[in-house]
Amino acid sequence: xxxxxxxxxxxxxxxxxxxxxxxxxxxxxxxxxxxxxxxxxxxxxxxxxxxxxxxxxxxxxxxxxxxxxxxxxxxxxxxxxxxxxxxxxxxxxxxxxxxxxxxxxxxxxxxxxxxxxxxxxxxxxxxxxxxxxxxxxxxxxxxxxxxxxxxxxxxxxxxxxxxxxxxxxxxxxxxxxxxxxxxxxxxxxxxxxxxxxxxxxxxxxxxxxxxxxxxxxxxxxxxxxxxxxxxxxxxxxxxxxxxxxxxxxxxxxxxxxxxxxxxxxxxxxxxxxxxxxxxxxxxxxxxxxxxxxxxxxxxxxxxxxxxxxxxxxxxxxxxxxxxxxxxxxxxxxxxxxxxxxxxxxxxxxxxxxxxxxxxxxxxxxxxxxxxxxxxxxxxxxxxxxxxxxxxxxxxxxxxxxxxxxxxxxxxxxxxxxxxxxxxxxxxxxxxxxxxxxxxxxxxxxxxxxxxxxxxxxxxxxxxxxxxxxxxxxxxxxxxxxxxxxxxxxxxxxxxxxxxxxxxxxxxxxxxxxxxxxxxxxxxxxxxxxxxxxxxxxxxxxxxxxxxxxxxxxxxxxxxxxxxxxxxxxxxxxxxxxxxxxxxxxxxxxxxxxxxxxxxxxxxxxxxxxxxxxxxxxx
Length: 618
Known about the structure:
The protein is an alpha+beta fold. It has helices at residues 2-31, 152-256, 261-474, 479-558, 610-617, and strands spanning 36-44, 53-58, 61-67, 71-76, 81-87, 94-99, 112-120, 137-142, 147-150, 562-569, 573-582, 585-594, 599-603, 606-608. It folds into 5 domains: 1-32; 34-150, Immunoglobulins (Immunoglobulin-like), CATH 2.60.40.10; 184-350; 477-549; 559-618. It has 5 helices and 14 strands. The strands form 3 sheets. Strands 3-2-5-6-8-9 form a 6-stranded mixed sheet, with helices on one face. The model is unreliable at 1-9 and 17-32 (pLDDT under 50).
C-alpha cells in the first residue's frame, strides 16, 4: 500500500517538474538570441601582464579563466551571479560582481553591452587589504535605464574603506620609493667610491708611466752622450790619421821634388786650409744637428709632459664637476626636504594655532552668549512673573481646547485603527478560513486514509479472532465442518478486505484526480495570467517606445541645429552629453568618467570606442 502511494506522489512531482522544464525551455528558447556581452579593460599599474589572469565564477562555482591581457570580451548568460577576479602575484586581487538577474519579458531584443575597467596595484607589507576580499563594484540591471550599471549604494558603502586602503597604499608606495632612492643613493656612493679608487689607480699608473718615460729619456740622453763621445773619439782618430798622412805626403813630396817645394808648399797650404775649413764646417754642421736633435727630444719630452698634465687637469676638473654636481643635488634634496619639513611644521603650527584661536574665540563667544542669555533670562523672569497670572486663565482655556482636540483626534485615530483592525481581522479571517478549508481537506484525506487503515486493522483483527474461534471450534466440530467454516470465514474476510482496498483505492484515485485537476487549473490560470502579463507588458513596452519616439521627436524639434554640449557630475562620476543635429538627423553622444578612473563612451545608447567618439564629436 505504501509503495503505491509513494509512486503516485512521485508521478505528481515529476509532472510538476516537467511543466517547469517545459516553461523554462520555452522562455530560454524565446530569448536565446538576446546577448549580454561584457567588455573588460584590465590594467596592471606599474607592471605588465606576465603571470596575470582573470578567474570567473558563476553562482559560486568556477566557470572560466582567461590569461591576463588589456581587453577581454565575454558573453554572459542571464539570471546568474558572476564574480570576476583579477589576479597577479605581488598585486592586490580585485573582484567585480555582475548580477544578470532580469525578467525574461524585460530583456531588450538587441541585447546589452557591459563595459567596465579594473586597475590592480602592487601589494605592500603593512597595508590591510581585507576590504578587497569583497567585490569593489557590483553591476545589476536598472529598469529605469534598461541597462546594466553600477550599484551606487554598494559603492558608497565601501568607499571609505577603499579610500583608507588607497591612502595606506600611497604611504607604503612612498616608503618603497624612498627605500629605492636610498638604495640608489647607496649605489651612487659606491659608484663614486669606485670612481675615486679608479682615479687613484689611474694616477698611480700615470705616475709609473711618467717614471718609465723619465727613465727612458735619461737612458736616451746617456746613449746620446756616449754616441757623441764615440763620435768625438773617431773624429780625433781620423784627424790624427789625416795629419799623419799629410805629413807623410809632404815629406815624400819634399824629398821627391825639391824644385817644386815652394809650389808644393803653396798647394799644401791651400789644401790644409781647405781641409781645415771643411773640418770646421763639418764640426759646425754636426754640432748644429746634435743641437737640433737634442732640442727636438727636449721639446717632445716637454710636450708629452704638458699633455699628461693637461689630461690630468681635465680628469681632475671632471671629477671636481661630478663631485660638485652630486653635492649640489644633495644640497637641493636636503633643502627641498627641509622646506617640505618646514612647510609641514608651519602648517601644523598654523593649524594648531588656528584651533587654539578658534577654541578661544568659541569660548569667549560662549561666555558672552551665556552672560547675554543670563541677562535676558533675568529680564524675562521678571516679565514672565508679571504676566504669569494673566496667562494662567488663557493657558487653562488653551489646555481645555487642546484636551478636547486631543480627545477628538484620539477618537478619530481610534476609529481609523478600529477600521484598519477590522480590515486586518477580515483579511485574517479570510486567510484563516482558507487555511481551515485546506486543513479540513487535508484532514478529510488523512481521515479517509486512517479509516481505511483502521478497516484493514479491524479486518485483520476479525481474521485473527475468526482464526482463534476456528481453533476453539476445532475441538467441537469434525474436520469437514471446520474446513467449511474456515473457508467461509476466509472468503468473508477476503471479500471484506477486497471491499476495503477498493474503497481506499477509489478514495486515493479521487484525491489524486482532485489534485491533478487543481494542478491543471493552477497551471492554466498561471499560463493565462502570464499571457495577460506578457500582453500588458508588450502593450506597455510599445506604449513606452511610442511615447519615447514621440518625446524624442518633440525634443529633436526643439534641439538647435549644430552641436550642443552639457556636463553633469555627482559623487561618483562626471557625464558629458553632446547632441549633434544635422537636418532631421539627431545623434546623442555620452561620455562617462568614473572617479576611480574608468572611461566609457556611448552613441544613441550603444557603447562606442574613444576614437569614434572623438572623431564624430570634434
